[in-house]
């Protein structure tokens, strides 16, 4: 993972590569030109070539948080940078350097094997390490931003590698400096800071229920509980195409929340760190009668209204059509706007 080592071979170029296996919706998509990126040093040459030919380009990790069209024109950089290691440790924390192509869930499992807890609430979230900070993935009261020390990336605008410390990443709910500056940064490595003073986070209802008889669960206990809950609520992409949670939980002012609560006494919500209120998007969608409904080849998952699924043969256009229908009905009923979470390429 050190760029000072011997220069790697140039990125492998594969024309007209099928990507059905590389997007969890299972859309039948192909990349006009696919470049396999296995080392950071390969990126400058690829970006220079793409710029010279004036080709559109994008980065694709595990394809778990994207909506792909039938054809991706220009260049698609397949993020396959591997490697994970403990680079330092002091009395307060351990530091891990992880390649952007590493599978996220496998990293979480590895940290527990190494007795480095902290990420267990984020178990079973699909995707790669490099994509995780862009969206600032989060679940069950934990965000990845809580544990990031720094991020190494290639700045395509200035054609140079940069290192951004946590504060420079401007992390917010499902947001970051990388997301705010699309098509500029290619994350190559993430350095995690895992505090040695570990504390269980089980205040979310699903986890509280799992540990009703266990006041002191271990990190491994939480990991297994999160996997159990997510497996029950979310479909396996290998069985039915999906991108996990399709909409962000909307955050609204307290005044709007109180008005909604008077009209809908069973409204599901959570306190927000900024003093606002976060609504459960899945509950809003469910109240509009979408859970389990189907629209042609796509639909809403029967066990979790927040998840849109591809039953087979669906396209990006089909999913976005369904999403628009949901957004309109939720807004009509609650006056709340739902934002799509996956990236639309």
Total domain modules:
3
**Large-scale geometry:** globular
Sheet with most strands: strand arrangement: 6-7-12-10-11
The first-to-last residue Cα distance is 29 Å
Provide a count of the helices: 9
CATH topology of the largest domain: Uridine Diphospho-n-acetylenolpyruvylglucosamine Reductase, domain 3
Question: How many whole angstroms does the radius of gyration measure?
Answer: 21 Å
The CATH class assignment of the largest domain is: Alpha Beta
Describe the largest sheet: 5 strands, antiparallel
H-E order: EEHEEEEEHHEEEEHEHHEEHEEHEEEHE
Strand element count: 20
Low-confidence regions = none
Secondary structure: helix percent? 10-25%
The helix-and-strand class reads alpha+beta
Task: Describe the structure using short key phrases.
9 helices; 3 domains; 345 residues; Uridine Diphospho-n-acetylenolpyruvylglucosamine Reductase, domain 1; globular; four-stranded mixed β-sheet; alpha+beta; Uridine Diphospho-n-acetylenolpyruvylglucosamine Reductase, domain 3; Uridine Diphospho-n-acetylenolpyruvylglucosamine Reductase, domain 2
Report a brief summary of the structure.
It contains nine helices and 20 strands. With 345 residues, it is α+β, with helices and mostly antiparallel strands. It folds into three domains: 12-79, Uridine Diphospho-n-acetylenolpyruvylglucosamine Reductase, domain 2 (2-Layer Sandwich); 84-195, Uridine Diphospho-n-acetylenolpyruvylglucosamine Reductase, domain 3, CATH 3.30.465.10; 241-344, Uridine Diphospho-n-acetylenolpyruvylglucosamine Reductase, domain 1, CATH 3.90.78.10.
């Amino acid at each position: 993972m050190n760029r000072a080592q011997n220069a790697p071979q140039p990125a492998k170029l594969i024309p007209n590569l099928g990507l059905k296996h590389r997007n969890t919706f299972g859309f039948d998509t192909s990349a006009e030109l696919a470049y396999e990126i296995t080392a950071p040093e390969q990126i400058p040459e690829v970006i220079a070539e793409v710029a010279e030919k004036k080709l559109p380009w994008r980065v694709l990790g595990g394809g778990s948080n994207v909506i792909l069209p039938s054809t991706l024109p220009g260049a698609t950089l397949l993020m396959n940078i591997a490697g994970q290691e403990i680079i330092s440790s002091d009395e307060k924390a351990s530091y891990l350097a992880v390649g952007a192509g590493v599978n996220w869930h496998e990293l979480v499992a590895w940290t527990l094997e190494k007795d480095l807890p902290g990420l267990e609430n984020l178990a079973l979230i699909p995707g790669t390490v490099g994509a995780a900070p862009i969206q600032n993935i989060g679940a069950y009261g934990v965000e990845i931003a809580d544990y990031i020390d720094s991020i190494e990336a290639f700045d395509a605008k200035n054609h140079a590698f940069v290192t951004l410390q946590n504060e420079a990443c401007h992390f917010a709910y499902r947001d970051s400096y990388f997301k705010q500056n699309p098509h500029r940064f290619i994350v190559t490595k993430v350095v995690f800071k895992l505090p040695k003073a570990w504390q269980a986070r089980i205040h979310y209802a699903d986890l509280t229920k799992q540990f009703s008889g266990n006041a002191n669960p271990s990190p491994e206990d939480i990991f297994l509980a999160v996997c159990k809950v997510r497996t029950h609520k979310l479909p396996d992409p290998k069985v039915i195409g999906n991108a996990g949670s399709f909409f962000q939980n909307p955050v609204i002012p307290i005044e709007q929340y109180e008005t909604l609560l008077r009209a809908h006494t069973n409204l599901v919500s959570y306190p927000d760190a900024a003093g606002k209120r976060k609504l459960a998007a899945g509950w809003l969608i469910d109240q509009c009668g979408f859970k389990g409904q189907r629209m042609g080849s796509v639909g809403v998952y029967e066990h979790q209204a927040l998840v849109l699924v591809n039953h087979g043969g669906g396209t990006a256009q089909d999913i976005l059509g369904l999403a628009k229908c949901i957004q309109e009905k939720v807004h009509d009923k609650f006056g709340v706007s739902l934002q799509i979470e996956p990236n639309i390429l």
